[in-house]
Amino acid sequence: MRKHYPLLSTLRPLLTLRDEVNTQLLAPEVKRLWKQAIRSKHWEGVRCSLRSAQAATLRRQSIDLSQDALQATLETESGALLLKELAFALRPWRIGPYQLGNLFIDSEWRSQLKWSRIGPLIRQEPGLRVADVGCSNGYFLFKLARNNPQLALGFDPVDRCWLQFALLQSIFRLPQYGFVPAGLSALEAFPQLFDLILCMGVMYHQRDPLAAVQQLYRAARPGAQVIVESLVVDRAGTECLVPQGRYAKMRNAWNIPTADALRSFMEQAGFSGIEVHRFGPITSAEQRRTEWAPFESLEDFLDPSDPSKTIEGYPAPHSAAVVGWRA
């Protein structure tokens, strides 16, 4: 197992929760992605390079997670080539950006723009137990380091995201930070555990969004804050748009909510003190193709003659967030 230590180390914070987590519920999904990441020939070279990254090759001198691009100054640039090759092999980088030594990772999403909207909504308290559900590589979770959380867990069922997080942690080395290689359903194993839950860019991938919000509620401690952010359709009412086929070329967009639908889900789940924040349309200033995400992006998903519509003719995506508290 030691040869896979970089991935194992991301699970270490779970050991502090062994008396509070239902491991029987959690284990099957974690094992599934573990086998996928370990057996995959596609990731074989990445795993070997990660072992080198875990060594002193990429030891950081300092970090600054308050900047738009999360920064790490390396003790030596001797591992710069390894770092670039490894990061490049892990493309696409959906969220970021990162400045790792001399390497700038220009992600598809300029996530600092979302942070400028979401960050001010987050409770500013140290020592919280924090979850980021659908965390991708952990950009927003790392942003929360300013609050010195007691525990910070990212949840994502994508093996590439797990490997990206492991690479970043081999540099940042934040001991209370971990990654759960599983999706939102894994929250059932964490009853009433978190003081703050972020769930961003996840709801429209749920076949039953109300059930998903109820899972967030059950994972929240009494008094916890939960923030659900999602792309939404800009129209009145609580009916979700159910695409016939794809939405903005996504195969797994099952229910596109309105902002009012998000509020309704939070109310039905039992949250109180609910606030709705509408942020307007998503634009190419925030989501675009880059060297680090060289595939189709927002401009390919919208009608070129009418950017208020998706390529399929549906209303183009807007962004909204709903904040609620568990009583």
List keywords for this structure.
327 residues; alpha/beta; Rossmann fold; seven-stranded mixed beta sheet; 24% strand
- Helical coverage, percent range: 25-40%
- The shape, in one word, is globular
CATH topology label = Rossmann fold
How much β-strand is present in the residues?
15-25%
Uncertain stretches of 5 or more adjacent residues: none
Query: Could you give a short account of the major beta sheet?
Result: 7 strands, mixed
Strand order of the largest sheet: 9-8-7-10-11-15-12
CATH classification class: Alpha Beta
Straight-line N-to-C gap: 43 Å
Tally of domains: 1
Give the SSE string: HHHEEHEEEEHEHEHEEHEHEHEEE
How many helices? The count is 10
Mind telling me the CATH superfamily name? Vaccinia Virus protein VP39
Mean pLDDT: 93
Give an account of the 3D structure.
This protein has 327 residues and is of the alpha/beta class. It has one domain: Rossmann fold (3-Layer(aba) Sandwich), CATH 3.40.50. It is built from 10 helices and 15 strands. The strands form 4 sheets. Strands 9-8-7-10-11-15-12 form a 7-stranded mixed β-sheet, with helices on both faces. Strands 1-2-4-5 form a 4-stranded mixed β-sheet. A two-stranded parallel ribbon has the order 3-6. Strand 13 and strand 14 form a beta hairpin. Helix 1 crosses helix 7, helix 3 packs antiparallel against helix 4 and helix 3 runs parallel beside helix 7. The chain is globular, with a radius of gyration of 19 Å.
Describe this structure in a few short sentences:
The chain is of the alpha/beta class and 327 residues long. It has one domain: Vaccinia Virus protein VP39 (Rossmann fold, 3-Layer(aba) Sandwich). It has ten helices and 15 strands.
